[in-house]
Specification:
This is Riboflavin synthase. InterPro entries: P-loop_NTPase. Helix content is 22%, strand content 28%. The protein is an alpha/beta fold. The protein is elongated, with a radius of gyration of 27 Å.
Length: 461
């Protein structure tokens, strides 16, 4: 005997009732499985749906509780109806695959209609000791990376682990705008995509944006819960469509955007970067940004890092200009790095010493240590700083006039951050100790640190 099969249409993006619809039902006549039910529901509700909705992409969940579960899975198409949807309270959840972003953060901004295709995409699980990482087609399709319909295989090389550690340190644990740069074909994009798919979606939403200069469009993929939304933006509509997509991200949850394929020489690519950067700066705590760029180094004409600091109760702004970044091993006897030009140096291991980066400007006789921290206060051990200063003085630097120690914190913590060391203590325990060290490589009295001043400051990004 026929019965009613109850269902509720749900918007895949908002997870709420689709377009204000109420729980409804269809007859179980000629409905044997989920595929049959899909057709019956579509016949009933199609007048209320946009013309571009694809019925085959409807996803069904047994009930609201299953749909809201972190690992809730949609029903298989050949599953028998049985007692599913037997009551309003236990109505089947039907996820509508196409949605139009209309969340408006700036009321005066004209929001275009951006169409998305929905699909299932569970979080990528990576075993701690796995030598091979496999991204299934559900993670790869629509991203512009790999081969559509096939998996993507990555070996767990040291370069992959290093890039993952940097993305976690800079973009998850802190709020920095991270640049991943290098020649084409080195695996930067694949590694970033695997990282994006492996993020815990209980805490993170992901927006992947891949720019294809060859085909002149952007692949956009939004990961939320166990769902994936995919759309394509043409170069000529990037100024209109990308702000709408960025403004459609959650204001309550943390979202990380990956802008892949950026090159400064492309007008559309540069427009996308500026829009992503503006979105990031509006709320650095909620809006994280990673840019993957196919260049050996960032161009010198590219803007540097803007930062803020307090001076006499006044917030001021400054900038560190762009320079090359090289890696070095602080544990080795010598620093084998050319310092003829202003250079940023980063330890090969992020937690190798008491600092995250060192800037050396030989022309201005400046050495700047940088430590990034999210905490309200930080520890300080002078040993690492003295050791590196001595190696620099024994090698490339004949004169060091200023040694800076900069603690970089999120803007939200700038005013309340407690410096772990005063300038007097830094001068006494670092600069003066380094200047007193004998250096056998010098044939005359060592003047490297003569009249050298130590400075300590906290800056916000």
């Amino acid at each position: 005997m026929a019965r009613k099969v109850w269902f509720q249409l749900v918007d895949a993006a908002t997870r709420d009732a689709y377009a204000g619809t109420q729980t409804a039902s269809v007859s179980s006549d000629d409905v044997n499985n989920i595929d049959d039910l899909r057709e019956a529901i579509f016949t009933k509700v199609s007048p209320a749906l946009p013309a571009n909705v694809i019925v085959a992409n409807f996803l069904f969940y047994a009930n609201r509780e299953i749909y809201d579960e972190e690992n809730g899975q949609p029903l298989d198409e050949d599953l028998a109806i049985g007692a599913l949807g037997a009551s309003k309270k236990g109505a089947l959840i039907v996820v509508v695959p196409t949605q139009r972003f209309q969340q408006l953060q700036r009321p005066l901004l004209e929001i275009p209609q951006v169409d998305w295709t929905m699909a299932s995409c569970s979080q990528l699980v990576v075993e701690d000791k796995a030598e091979l990482i496999e991204l299934p087609p559900s993670c790869v399709d629509g991203t512009g990376i790999g081969r559509s319909g096939g998996p993507l295989m990555l070996y767990r090389r040291p370069s992959l682990v290093k890039q993952w550690n940097e993305m976690d340190r800079c973009s998850i644990q802190t709020y920095a705008l991270l640049w991943i740069v290098g020649p084409p074909g080195t695996g930067k994009s694949c590694t970033a995509l695997a990282f994006a798919c492996a993020l815990d979606r209980a805490y993170w939403d992901v927006l992947w944006i891949h720019y294809s200069r060859r085909y002149e469009y952007f692949n956009c993929v939004r990961l939320h819960g166990n769902m994936k939304a995919v759309c394509v933006i043409k170069e000529e509509t990037i100024d209109r469509d990308l702000p709408a997509i960025l403004n459609g991200t959650s204001q309550e949850r943390q979202t990380i955007v990956f802008l892949d394929g950026y090159v400064k020489s492309s007008k559309a690519g540069e427009a996308a970067r500026l829009k992503c950067k503006r979105w990031h700066q509006e709320n650095e705590i909620k809006h994280r940004l990673v840019c993957i760029c196919s260049m050996a180094t960032l161009e010198l004409s590219h803007k540097g890092i803007d930062w803020s600091y307090w001076e006499e109760s006044t917030m001021k702004r400054d900038r560190w200009e762009q320079s090359d970044v090289v890696f070095f091993d602080p544990d080795k006897h010598k620093v084998s790095v050319s310092l003829d030009d202003p250079t940023w140096m980063a330890p090969v291991k992020w937690n190798q010493g008491g600092y995250d980066a060192v800037f050396v400007n030989k022309r201005e006789n400046l050495v700047r240590f940088v430590q990034v921290t999210r905490a309200g206060k930080h520890t300080f051990d002078p040993t690492y700083f003295v050791a590196l200063l001595n190696k620099l003085a024994a090698g490339a630097l004949n004169q060091i006039a200023v040694v800076e120690l900069c603690f970089v914190v999120p803007m939200a913590r700038l005013e309340g951050f407690v410096l772990p060391v005063s300038e007097d203590d830094f001068q006494r325990n670092v600069v003066q100790v380094a200047s007193s060290e004998p250096r056998a490589t010098r044939s005359s009295v060592d003047q490297t640190f003569q009249n050298c001043n130590g400075k300590v400051m906290v800056i916000g990004l």
